[in-house]
Every structure is written in structure tokens, then in C-alpha cells.
Amino acid sequence: MAPRSPSAAVLVLHGGYENGTEPPPPGLLNLPGTRMRPFVRALRRATCGPESGAHVLVRQVRYAHRGWNGSRADALHDALAALDALGEEAGGSGEGDGVPVVLLGHSMGARAALLAAGHPLVRGVVGLAPWCPPGDPVTQLAGRDVVLVHSSRDRITSPQATQSLTTRARRAGARTCMVTVRGGDHAMIRRAPAWHRLTTTLVTGLLGTGSLPEPVTAALGLPPTAEPTEGTLDLDRLRPRRGTAGLQPSP
């Protein structure tokens, strides 16, 4: 029996450093990469099992350098190369007729995901504790679904900058939403189960293999003129749709 063609794909981009031209260390020594392993496992369980009814590729970007490195934007180039490779693996031409891809990035990886979202395969972005410098462009996000998740206690990247980018991207034609995790942290260790559940729900919802929480769907449908607070949700106030597993608040 020939293998099933994938119906969609997820590309995972772990975090890194502002500067650093050396390659990331291997295996578990690469702490930013290790941090994303539970998310990858949860996504594979949700999208690749026989009960999911879909065949979704879950792949991870391999960085040549551990840092962003200013105008070099090394992680962005790695993300774009990985998207091209994913398109070839899935059998598409890379010109818009390939499998739809959702990018999942953390911190520096979320910055790379947001900037790479103009690639023709990308349909959506889920950014965790994203690094959102105020000068980064947003026009490449037009027509994409973008959900950014940030801890209210993050001291490494700015939740205020994330809210600002969410608003700017909506005005540029993206469908955007921000979810705040009260009591979380940048490394996503505090309230880790809540981070994992929320991320899996968002990615599968954007892929169409699951259901988004109704408040997220409503926020994605806001007009470009909406106030920043209208598109900002509190994780603990999200409720699952009736008849779905959905999200449950976690201490």
C-alpha cells in the first residue's frame, strides 16, 4: 500500500540567542531545542495517530547558527530553506499548491516564523513568547492566521511588543490574536501542561484538524480597526467548545 500523502504540515522553530555564530550544541545540550520536545510530542500524538483522521508532517528547523546575528537574520534563512525542503518532501512545487503549513516558533524561532510567513506554503503562525522588535515588518503576514502566546511575567521578551505586533499585523491584513498566560514564564516551565495543551489546540485548529476555542475564532475575525485589547485573550478565560476536549485551566 502506498503511503498516504500528507494533508498538512507543522514546522517547529526553537529559540536561540540574539548573537552567536557557532552552531547549536547537539542533542539535549541544545536547551532551546530540548524545550520544544514536549510540544513536538504532543503535536505528533494529536496529528499523526490513526484517530486523528489526517496525515500531518511535523518537522523541525535545524539552525546553522545559534544566534539571530543582527541583519544576517540567520534563523530566518534557515526557516525559509526548511520550508522549501518541506514543500519538496510533501510533493508540492512550493508555489502555493503544496500542503498548508503552520509554523510553530518559540522566542527567536517565533521571530523567524513571523518573518518567514510570506512563504507561499504558510497558512498560519503560532508564536510562543515571541521576540517582536518594533521595527520588524508585518506586511508578509497579510492573509495569514497569527496567534501569539505570551506570559504576563516574561522578562526575556516583551508581551507589550507582542500585543503591538498583533495589532500592526491585523491592520496589515492578517487575522490575529494574542493569548496571555498568567503566571507563566519565558521558558514555558511554569504551567507547562497549559502551554502544551494550548499550543496543540491552536496548531490543530489552524490546520483544520481540530477546533479553535470560540474566543480565538472571534478574535481572528476582528476588523483591522479593532483595539489592541479586543484581540487579547486570557488563557484562563478560554472555554472548550461543547463536545470537544478543548482547554482546561491549569495551575
* End-to-end CA span: 46 Å
Shape: globular
Low-confidence stretches: 241-246
Number of strands: 7
Radius of gyration: 17 Å
- Percent helix: 25-40%
Order of helices and strands: EHHEHEHEEHEHHE
Q: What does the average pLDDT come to?
A: 90
What is the count of DSSP helices, taking H or I runs of 4+ residues? 7
Helix-strand category:
alpha/beta
Strand residues, percent: 15-25%
Which sequence of strands runs across the widest sheet? Answer: 2-1-3-4-5-6-7
Q: Which assembly state applies to the chains in this document?
A: single chain
Describe this structure in words.
By secondary structure, the protein is of the alpha/beta class. Helices cover 31% and strands 16% of the residues. The protein is built from seven helices and seven strands, in the order βααβαβαββαβααβ. It has helices spanning 31-35, 37-48, 74-89, 108-116, 159-171, 192-207, 214-220; strands at residues 8-13, 56-60, 101-106, 122-128, 145-151, 175-181, 232-234. A seven-stranded parallel β-sheet has the order 2-1-3-4-5-6-7, sandwiched between helices. The longest helix is centred in the N-terminal third of the chain and has 16 residues, at 74-89. The N and C termini lie far apart (46 Å).
